[in-house]
């Protein structure tokens, strides 16, 4: 089954378009867990157990694991293996390189870590994404208009009357792809999202930037015009509690965001 | 001492602007080593021993290590620790993400792996690079015009009369940076390199794409007009031999490329 179809079925089964971010840093987890033997894996196990009934997907940002070296990479692998099969998994890795190098990244993320999807950076063009796009049972989520302030520096440059991020979306959609396609659009840009839905109405969008980054759920859901989306929330769920009841707090936060996002079929 | 100064002193000390790529894949190393206990570390130890006298820098592409999971990350760390202190080390990681995430990548590459430099992707703009640019003893090498065919897809889009890669170079040079700055310019674009040297005459350039990718050394050195450069060669040195004498073959290939590149003070 195509990755997009698997994701949509999961969303329908639990009436949720919430994506839960697992961007775990030892300094931010409840203090009583920080001294345990495998603090990241232990913490993530509880978060997954407490939130998976509300999560259409988990997004794991590789940076937070890489900072702990080979132990972090092991925790990353452990974390992904603990996620129930029916929940979609996204490696938020923002990779891309020349062809033979991107092939190695595809093996790392799709084969070694066995994620359903990866985020990729379009700057290096078609052949840098081809090794990901070849994988028919996976999803490739391309950065288009990101949630951060620096999204204005290059992504909004106008060429031939259109911003760079629109060139990215249109060009990617013109390429052959066996994989399912998605785009990252930051929740901080509802006006642009409205425009994007006019030329990409049915594309899956991964929307980060809710919560700690200040995106407004109502504005973004209105602009989205019922297109397929995953709304990511990371810190506001993961770190909702900082004592023994952190799992319960995460459960409540996930439920809150799932309901705020809403679900229409 | 600033990273750029350290690199220039190394280049002067051995009259070499060669950067040796360590993009190790188990399937490509000599067959007699493939079954050894730590094939990547064992192979890289020999390549480093055989080429460090000719190498101003080593460039290690993280993708090739990540494909082997936590063992690959351990091999990556082992490899960097085996490189003599006086040789410059570049993590060719092409990272960048929102600010707090890029901070984690900076810790991974500069602190856990202790590399002198990292390659980064500019698509997400200033705040995605700031955590790297803050590090005054390191070098941040920004993708500008890459060596691959896909470099035409977005990097050459014209905005306000200039290609995107020129916007990247000029914008980056306008930012405050404590770190030394460098840019990636593919060896496959000598005409553009000439132009780039007209507005960035003294910037350090990392030039990949010689050898397997078809870049022409003479054309590129002429276009460079004696600006500071590292010319990277990976496969043509690493895989120069495939039997017991692979170290000797790598030594000879490194010497050949060092001399072909030449050195003028």
Number of strand segments of chain A: 10
CATH superfamily of chain A, please?
A: Aldolase class I
Largest sheet of chain A: 8 strands, parallel, barrel
Our Rg estimate of chain A from Cα atoms comes to: 18 Å
Order of helices and strands of chain A: HEHHEHHEHEHEEEHEHEHEHH
Unreliable residue runs of chain A: none
Using CB atoms under 8 Å apart, which protein chain pair has the greatest interface? A-B, 60 and 60 residues
**Share of helical residues of chain A:** 40-55%
Q: What would you call the structural class of chain A?
A: alpha/beta
The CATH class label of chain A is Alpha Beta
State the CATH topology of chain A: TIM Barrel
Question: Helix count of chain A, per DSSP?
Answer: 12
Q: Give the quaternary arrangement of the chains.
A: homodimer
Q: Tell me the fraction of residues in β-strands of chain A, as a range.
A: 15-25%
- Please state the second-level CATH architecture of chain A: Alpha-Beta Barrel
Present the secondary structure layout.
Two copies of one chain form a homodimer.
Chain A (H helix, E strand, L loop, with lengths): L2 H12 L3 E4 L9 H4 L4 H13 L5 E5 H5 L2 H14 L5 E8 L3 H14 L4 E4 L5 H8 L5 E7 L12 E2 L2 E2 H11 L5 E6 L4 H10 L4 E4 L9 H8 L4 E5 L1 H4 L7 H16 L4
Parallel strand pairs in A: 1-2, 1-10, 2-3, 3-4, 4-5, 5-8, 8-9, 9-10
Antiparallel strand pairs in A: 6-7
Helix pairs in contact in A: 3-5, 3-12, 6-7, 9-10
């Amino acid at each position: 089954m195509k990755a997009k179809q698997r994701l949509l079925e999961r969303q329908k089964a639990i009436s949720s378009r919430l994506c839960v971010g697992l961007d775990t840093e030892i300094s931010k987890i409840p203090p009583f867990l920080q001294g345990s033997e495998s603090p990241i894996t232990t913490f993530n196990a509880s978060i997954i157990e407490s939130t998976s009934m509300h999560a259409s997907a988990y997004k794991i940002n590789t940076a937070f694991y890489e900072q702990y070296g080979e132990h972090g990479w092991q925790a990353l692998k452990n974390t992904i293996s603990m996620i129930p099969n029916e929940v979609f998994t996204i490696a938020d890795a923002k990779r891309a390189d020349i062809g033979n190098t991107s092939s190695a990244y595809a093996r790392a993320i799709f084969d070694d870590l066995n994620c359903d999807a990866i985020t990729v950076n379009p700057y290096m063009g078609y052949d840098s994404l081809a090794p990901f796009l070849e994988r028919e049972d996976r999803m490739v989520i391309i950065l288009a208009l990101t949630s951060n302030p620096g999204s204005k520096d290059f992504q909004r440059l106008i060429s031939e009357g259109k911003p760079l991020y629109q060139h990215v979306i249109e060009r990617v959609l013109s390429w052959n792809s066996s994989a399912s396609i998605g785009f990252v659009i930051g929740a901080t840009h509802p006006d642009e999202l409205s425009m994007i839905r006019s030329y990409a109405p049915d594309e899956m969008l991964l929307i980060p930037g809710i919560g700690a980054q200040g995106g407004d759920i109502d504005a973004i859901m209105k602009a989205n015009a019922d297109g397929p989306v995953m709304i990511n929330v990371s810190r506001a769920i993961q770190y909702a509690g900082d004592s023994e009841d952190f799992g319960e707090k995460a459960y409540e936060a996930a439920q809150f965001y799932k309901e705020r996002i809403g679900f229409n079929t």
